[in-house]
Amino acid sequence: MSDEEHQFESKADAGASKTYPQQAGTIRKGGHIVIKNRACKVVEVSTSKTGKHGHAKCHFVAIDIFNGKKLEDIVPSSHNCDVPHVNRTDYQLIDISEDGFVSLLTENGNTKDDLKLPTDDALLTQIKDGFAEGKDLVVSVMSAMGEEQICALKDIGPK
After folding, report:
1. How many helices (H) and strands (E) does the chain have?
2. Neighbours of 32 (CB within 10 A)
3. Together in a domain, 78 and 27
4. pTM as predicted
5. How many CB atoms lie within 10 A of CB 135?
6. Which CA distances in Å does 120 have to 57, 71, 137?
7. Within this chain, do residues 75 and 113 fall inside the same structural domain, yes or no?
8. Same domain, 49 and 103
């Protein structure tokens, strides 16, 4: 045995996948699916009958959870689809910088400064107006597949 200490630099993540497989036939309206490498919320599912080549097919119509674009995909119902791990986390809003980034307070007392203001005009106006009025605001941040975006706002009263 040697007394040397070895330092290893980790260049990879912990191996936690951004998605998990789920059979296409079990994905329902309101669920999530990955279409064209985008995390989407399913708004419509229709299943065709088994045809000459034996597979029933699922036709998914879904909305990208980050940019609101409509995407469609057709997958054999017995095949697996990627389903994103979607998380919502609430943070207290501390500050808004001039370049459009927000400063958020995490549960453990640290700050999170890497998020931009949302692109949704109505939500953007609500956040800016509420912050200007000195309200205590809590933002909900949706994260999936390495992307994060503010998706909702709660007013918890004046400061």
Report:
1. 1, 11
2. 20
3. yes
4. 0.75
5. 16
6. 34, 19, 17
7. no
8. no
Single residue among 40, 67, 84 that ends a domain in this structure:
84
| Residue 109 forms part of a structural domain | yes
φ/ψ of 81, rounded to 5, equals -115, 155
In a domain, 9, yes or no: no
Distance separating alpha carbons of residues 26 and 42, to the nearest angstrom: 12
Same domain, 80 and 91: no
CA gap 64, 72 in Å, rounded: 10
Sheet holding 147-158, edge to edge: 111-116, 101-105, 87-96, 135-144, 147-158
pLDDT digit string, tens, across residues 54-95 = 778 999 999 999 888 999 999 998 899 999 999 999 999 888
Residues 81, 34 contacting (CB under 8 angstroms) = yes
- What was the pLDDT predicted at 62? 95
Nearest to 92 by CA among 80, 103, 100: 103
Closest alpha carbon to 159 in 137, 131, 135: 135
Domain that holds residue 146: 87-158
